[in-house]
Structure formats: C-alpha cells, structure tokens
What we know:
The protein has two domains: 44-232, no CATH class; 245-487, no CATH class. The protein is globular, with a radius of gyration of 22 Å. It has helices at 11-43, 46-65, 70-76, 81-114, 119-126, 128-145, 153-172, 178-199, 209-244, 246-280, 285-321, 330-342, 344-355, 359-380, 384-411, 415-442, 446-486. By secondary structure, the chain is mainly alpha-helical.
Amino acid sequence: METTTTQPDGVGKRAVRGTFWSFLSYTSGRVVTFVTTLVLARLLAPEEFGVIAYCTIVIAYLDLLNNFGVGHALIARRDRLEAAQNAAFVVSVGSGVALYAATWVAAPSLAAFFNEPQVTPLLRVLSIGLILVGFGTVPMAMLQRDLRFKAYLLPGIIRNVIRAIVAVGMAWQGFGVWSLVVSELVNKVLEVIIPWWIVRWRPTRAFDPQVMREMLGYGIHITGVSLVGSFMVNVDYLLVGRLLGAAALGYYTMAFRIPELVIRSVSQIVSTVAFPVLAHTQSNPEKTHEVYFAYLRYMSLVTFPTGVGLALLSPALVQVFFAEVWRPMIAPMQFIALASAFSIVSYLSGVIYNALGRPDLTFKLSLVKLPVVVVVLYIGTFWNIAGVAAGHVALTFLCMALDLVMIQRVTKAPLKGVLEAVRPAVLGTAAMAVAATALMLALTDAWLQAAIIPLAGAGTYIGAVWFAGRDTLLQARTMLRASLARS
C-alpha cells in the first residue's frame, strides 16, 4: 500500500505548519506531564524515582536497538515505499521480541550492577514495551514522513491524560514505584494504537531483499549514532546511580525532568519536523541553508530565554511547587537548564547530517565526543550531582563549537549566517537576565518571584528582541497566522 508523501514544492510552508502542530501537541502533553510530575513528587520518595530511573536507563538504550534505525530509513526513503514499509515492520517487530527476551534474562545481572534488587521485576515488566514499540515503528514513521502532526494532536493529549490518571491514581493508592511502571506500559500501548488508527496502514506481501539491505544499511549508521549518543546522554545517570546511589539519582532525575519537559521537548519537535523537511531539500544546498537558519533562528528564540529564565527561577520554583525534601535538586536544575537552552545548536547539526544521507558523520563526531563526555562527567561526581550538572554546561559549549565547524565544512553554511540567526535571541536573553536578576534582588518572597518575574522577563525579552530584530518577530507572526489559516 503506497502512501501519499509530501513534495518538494511548498516544503517551507509544510515545515511551519508541521512545527506548529507538533509544538502544540508536545506542549499540551508536556503540560499534563509537568503537572503529573509535581503531584507524584509529593506522593513518591526521591529513592523511588531513583529506582525507576535505573530501569528507564536500560530501556532507553534498548529502544535504540529496537528497529535498527529502519524508522529513520523509511522517513528518508524516496522509492519502493511499499517494500520499504514491509521491511521496516518485519525488522522492528522481530527486534522487539528478541530484545524483550534478552532483557528478561539479563535483568538479575543489571540489578546486581546497580546494587538494587527491585530492578529485576521492574525491568522485566517495563521491557514489554520493547515489543509494543516494534509494532508502532512503521505507522509513526509514516506520520512523520508526511508531516501529519495535526492528526496526532487530540489523540496525543488523550494519551497523556490517561497516562497521568493511571500514575497518580496508583501512587495515591500506595502502589509506589509500580505506579510509574504501569502508567508507562499504558502509554506504550496507546503510542502503538493511535498511529495505527490514524494511518490505517496494513503490511502486505510485497518484499524486496535489496530494499531490506538498503534499509538496514542506512539504519545501522543511525543505530550506531543513537547508541553512542544515548550513552553520552545517559552516562551521567549511570555515574550518579552507580557512584552516588538511588537517592542522589532520584534528585538528579527530577532536576533533569523539569528542563527536559520545558526545553528539551523543543529539540525533539525540531528533530521530528526538521528531519523529513531537510530530507526533501537535500539536493538543493541553498534551500538546506535556508531551512537550517530558519529553524535555528526560531528555536533559539524559544530555548535561549526559557533555559536562562528557568535557571534563574529554579530556587523559587522548587520552593513553591515541591516539598522541602527536594531542595537538593536546585543547583543541578540550574546548570541543566542552561545546558538545555543552548544544546539546540548541536541537536540541529545531527539532524542535518542524517537528512543529507550522511549519518556516518554524526557517528564519527559522537565517537570523538564520547571520551570527553565520560571524563568530564566522571570528574563532576567529585562534587556530587551539582558537579555532574555543571559538567553538562561545559560540554554543551564545547560540542556546540565542534558542530558549528563541521556544519560549515559539510554544508558550506557560513558561520556568519549562524551568528545572525541567533543574534536576536542572544540579545533578548541577555536583557531578560538583567531584568530578572534585578527583580530577584528586590523580591525576596518565592511566591512573588514565581508570579512576577516570568511576566516581567517575558515582556523585557520581547521588547529587546523587537528592538534587535523586529523582522524576526514579524516573520514568525506572519507564518504562524498563515499556518493557522491554512490548517
């Protein structure tokens, strides 16, 4: 069964609409997740968040092996789509079953590594999600390929609400860490059902061994990049959990979760939308530059001020929304917010390499970065979780410099264009930080800080951006209106 795919004509408009609806979908889901997290933080202990974090580290890593990158290969595919869809389905389902069996056997050894007996039963139940993800790979890839993000909006909101109800309800009834496990499995079931219901794709008997080899050839590079990248992303969790214990990992996980919900989801949106868009422009270097600079410009307008503002407000937010027991998460949350704000630059670089059919470049760069990441974060453990989080800030700017050099060499995108793209966001964020800091010194009450500073900071930021580059705001407003009108 062939699917309707987007054409190069009008890809910029599709990118804007796709980004808007994807952002709306993710934002609505993140709002539900954020509220759920605040409630669960008062029902569960930091140690329970730490125990489940041990399991999610393992599952997140195995998820990358689950389809050997054939989902990305399907998005980038331009011919023989029916055979490609069938090949991707066979690979993803088969790998899901195999990884579930392997996880069941390995669970006791992993529990011994983390020195936490509860990991064995928890991991064995959570790993059922590996099979479920395998069944959902092809429909979700087809949604992304065709930029059909609006269709996923309402079902996605419903999925997050159901997940939240299950988690909070079970935690309220005293199920402890199992409330997180069951809610995650419910989430995985819905993640499979919804794309199948929207796309209504069914596998056929069309099969081409050559297509299978091509899909796996492309996917292996993606998987290699993802494995190295996942280790880089999760090595801090491994170090904190192994060296500092479950309680420290619980604090660190929560400190990471808030910036992740507020900022890092933007990176996921960019990847989801930009990858298929850039794949359509891969034969046109000038168009690739245009799309790259546009994404960088508008995403920096969101992530830069949000990350810096969250870092400044972290003490007040933890005091207002969390119990006193969570106070140790303040310092790491501040550092992680800063790192998350500027990581969008490196994140976009990897998307470009993959979209241009060069995932090997991302893989090679990841291998170069990996030992540096491990050493810096290991040294950070000497200063507890705050030291590890501070290491993320240093690594963010180091990796950003390396990625900008490589982007310039590979795509010939001028560094001047990059600097021009982020200039309004940098100037606006600096002005906002000065205003917010002054208000924090004047207002000592945490509730007043949480209520007043975000509004004052946003007003200062918008005014500064208007002064530094009003064309950017006007273009964003025009494209948003066009997106809404067209949709």
